[in-house]
Amino acid sequence: xxxxxxxxxxxxxxxxxxxxxxxxxxxxxxxxxxxxxxxxxxxxxxxxxxxxxxxxxxxxxxxxxxxxxxxxxxxxxxxxxxxxxxxxxxxxxxxxxxxxxxxxxxxxxxxxxxxxxxxxxxxxxxxxxxxxxxxxxxxxxxxxxxxxxxxxxxxxxxxxxxxxxxxxxxxxxxxxxxxxxxxxxxxxxxxxxxxxxxxxxxxxxxxxxxxxxxxxxxxxxxxxxxxxxxxxxxxxxxxxxxxxxxxxxxxxxxxxxxxxxxxxxxxxxxxxxxxxxxxxxxxxxxxxxxxxxxxxxxxxxxxxxxxxxxxxxxxxxxxxxxxxxxxxxxxxxxxxxxxxxxxxxxxxxxxxxxxxxxxxxxxxxxxxxxxxxxxxxxxxxxxxxxxxxxxxxxxxxxxxxxxxxxxxxxxxxxxxxxxxxxxxxxxxxxxxxxxxxxxxxxxxxxxxxxxxxxxxxxxxxxxxxxxxxxxxxxxxxxxxxxxxxxxxxxxxxxxxxxxxxxxxxxxxxxxxxxxxxxxxxxxxxxxxxxxxxxxxxxxxxxxxxxxxxxxxxxxxxxxxxxxxxxxxxxxxxxxxxxxxxxxxxxxxxxxxxxxxxxxxxxxxxxxxxxxxxxxxxxxxxxxxxxxxxxxxxxxxxxxxxxxxxxxxxxxxxxxxxxxxxxxxxxxxxxxxxxxxxxxxxxxxxxxxxxxxxxxxxxxxxxxxxxxxxxxxxxxxxxxxxxxxxxxxxxxxxxxxxxxxxxxxxxxxxxxxxx
Length: 754
Hints:
By secondary structure, the chain is α/β, with parallel strands linked by helices. The chain has two domains: 2-126 and 157-397, Aldolase class I (TIM Barrel, Alpha-Beta Barrel), CATH 3.20.20; 473-746, Aldolase class I (TIM Barrel), CATH 3.20.20.70. 33% of the residues lie in helices and 15% in strands. The protein is globular. The two termini are 50 Å apart.
């Protein structure tokens, strides 16, 4: 393999590394899943079918074919036919090996994929990293036409049997591909045709595809130039059934739909965990839409993202997919141990290593043997599932939702899936265990405050609710991602307006964030933060802080409970102000009332309608009261926003949220879409400055945290195709709930609902 990569001194990983036990149970790809895939990779034998649900909050795990788990001896044969078709090309099984780029992977896995596609008569995608000659030799590949066109020319397009136009992917909907510059070594530079050491940032949109009509032109042009079928790859987002319908009408031969949680080599964490909907809901809604419009027979529908077993595959096919895409599971069969260092290039298993001299790369024979064994065992398990169901051809399973039954799935969700279900209480919406941040998010805050830029991670999401326990209603919400019909905006290259105005245009913030320092912070630190909000055009909430320090021109950016020189905004407890409003009116400064979400909303709205000429806004403080008496902050904000709009005073009254459970920029964006104008960052700041060693260190961490939050907010907006932040405030259509109970509380559609 040294000749292939023109490298010397390569160290090969020639055996499977032990599966780490630390924290693996909180990973989607947990120890049990890894062990099963590893076992199949070692001996090529099926293990079990009709696996019991592994994750209580994952919808796909709450679907079953009605059989108890069957443990296999490993020598069972099956009678059913797995022969299928992908974009008119016959395959021995409905399997598409995922688009994973050369550069993201360390070369050998790309070659193994292509070889196995030829050998097993299935299909492999190449990803957007150009086409290495060792991969181009193989015929059953689909070459990717992505937004950056890395290494693409007519010779590249003529390789293989088809082309994939990549619009989006499940790990990062609405943004382009991202290969860190540290991984762009000489060989990657050659294949991608970019300078070594530079970040390979694909544009968020295709700059020749800004409408569904543009997409049709690209599809027709590629077909005309090559004579090959064309697939379109999209992420599963809010409007995926409408997008899929448009793609089918524009002449594509197939659609790859990549669900939330899908793996990737590098992605901003805030996008990975907050945008996109689960693949099972996307496939069901797309299949329904295509059938209703008479388009279903025109296209192959491929389900991608978090397919960990043949059981997952069978369920998705029954929900409406023609085939499934295997990515992460395939890498695990080659030796991946989910170390999640893909973006750094120091993969211990050598799967995603940075290609330089001395690199540790997975051995070709190990990867080939493991992946082949796994795919053979996977096919056997799928065939045995068909035998148990009494189906002799896998194509007859497509869309057979009548064979599926839900467990603890609500009537509304079952309707979207097109299945029958047992009604029961279902999953808990909020868990109270005293820990608001997982280890991932503790690291996230630390990196954000050290780097001042979006935190980059790899592989799929472990966030709530499917893996990590949900600790707030926000954890059940997904933000929108732009796909085809609403082009994304590239926040790395285009300007996105994150400004917001408060106090009836008296106060302009560079982003919708107000700093809320810990009560015990020192006087010197307060002075630094006050200076910081002036430099960054933010605001600071000093209510409850005794030492307010020196006054100055920037104090108009301060919220506090003491009137000082007529500057800033006076924050008064609602209980106090509603009985003594006349005494406060004479102060002549903007007044804000601080309330708990347990307050009577009708009374508050009545008070605001009578006094909004002097009361400029509401600060909702859920400290020590989240979920008290069944009242959640998110629901209170939603109903407050709706109530103010009905009264016609929404644009005269600011809604500011102080919520200790806010742990990321994604939470901030969701709170804005629910109806808030700004969010107080208290717990994030406290975490960022924890253990600071000097005033300089305190200043740098605080500054970089704010800069990083602003960049991540811009990233979220760009991913949704939004130029101005103000257009998302109270725009609940940008959100989707993963459970109907959340829909009822927040007036938000359920994911997959049309």
